[in-house]
Design a protein that fits this description.
Blueprint lengths: L1 H41 L18 H13 L5 H7 L4 H13 L4
């Protein structure tokens, strides 16, 4: 009876490793997107220097994720943002939201 328990434990640990690797990949993609594209309007580390574009730093992750999903599915309309998030998958959107939520406003 010990063998199935060990097998179950090993399977669970390997799944956690896969999830962690996927999260790391999504966060790396999110950082690259933030540093390449988002920075143009929302500023370095999500701190906008232009009144027309909001700062993302320090916003709640759930709020940012909800807004990006709304732009992606078209329930929130903005041509620029819709083009920016259309190709992003859910893990990258979540990682972007988590990244900006972790940033501090100066």
């Amino acid at each position: 009876m010990r063998f199935p328990i060990r097998l179950l434990a090993m399977t669970a640990m390997s799944c956690c490793g896969i999830a962690s690797a996927g999260q790391d990949t999504a966060m790396a993609q999110a950082r690259s997107i933030a540093d390449t594209f988002c920075v143009t309007c929302h500023g370095s580390n999500g701190v906008s220097v232009v009144d027309h574009y909001p700062s993302l730093a320090g916003q709640k992750a759930a709020y940012l994720e909800k807004q990006m999903n709304a732009f992606r599915d078209g329930t929130r309309q903005d041509d620029i943002m819709m083009n920016m998030v259309t190709a992003l998958d859910a893990p990258v959107i979540k990682a972007l939201a988590d990244y900006y939520a972790s940033q501090k406003l100066p």
